[in-house]
């Protein structure tokens, strides 16, 4: 896949991909290379993988990207032990930070899966922020090295 | 990205996923663990030691499989998770729901079997 890559700083990685079904795989591979190159510890790499999957799959599901014009832009930065992931997309306005926490108890028969992805991101992150910037949704999550 | 091996341990089927279970591989995982369920084995132990990470799409498959096992009189239980994977199961409340054990031997005791 011919994907534009932008290298801003050795500790920063940015990539923009079409908002299609291949987006997660492409971004995941890029994140793995970033983590390997920068010696990101396993704990924060796990956080990055889960956050990327939850937030991008959420964007693809809620974004209603019915044509090929939608874009997802991802920036990851490791500064002074603070790993920050910023995901921007051109879908309709959607703020995942206000999603309600799902019911986390109950029997196997009663349990539902809805809302669990955002709950995972919220719990695994040190910060979880959203802002609308023109045509872009911007979600920013971060995790500090422990 | 994702491979799944399975083996018998007494009357339990031990499933060993390796790689990642996320939104891109969850459907594949669901198909790979279907054979024991279809074959009537409803005592499942999922050995998580080879799992790099799991997201909510993967948790959905575990919940569906656990529901199938329970309705057939069996159970699904877990063992040997790495720290990151364990954290996801704990945050979701699934580790207490399914049971998360230190080893396959400890997990199969759920089914009331002596260790082999």
Describe the structure using short key phrases:
A: Heat Shock Protein 90, 3 helices, B: 116 residues, alpha/beta, Transcription Regulator spoIIAA, six-stranded mixed beta sheet, 41% helix
Structure notes:
The complex is a heterodimer of chains A (146) and B (116). Chain A is built from three helices and six strands, in the order E-E-H-H-E-E-H-E-E. By secondary structure, chain A is of the alpha+beta class. Chain A has one domain: Heat Shock Protein 90 (2-Layer Sandwich), CATH 3.30.565. Chain A has a six-stranded antiparallel beta sheet with strand order 1-2-3-4-6-5, covered by helices on one side. Chain A is globular, with a radius of gyration of 15 Å. With 116 residues, chain B is an alpha/beta fold. Chain B contains five helices and six strands. In chain B, strands 1, 2, 3, 4, 5 and 6 form a six-stranded mixed beta sheet that branches. The mean pLDDT of chain B is 92. The longest helix of chain B has 16 residues, at 56-71. Chain A binds chain B through residues 24-25, 28, 42-43, 46-47, 49-50, 53-54, 56-57, 104-105, 107-109, 111, 113, 116-117, 119-120, 123-124, and chain B through 20, 22-24, 52-57, 59-60, 63, 66-67, 70, 83-85, 87-88, 91-93, 97-98.
Short description:
Chain A has 146 residues and is of the alpha+beta class. Chain A has helices spanning 23-38, 42-62, 116-124, and strands spanning 5-9, 12-18, 71-79, 82-89, 127-133, 136-144.
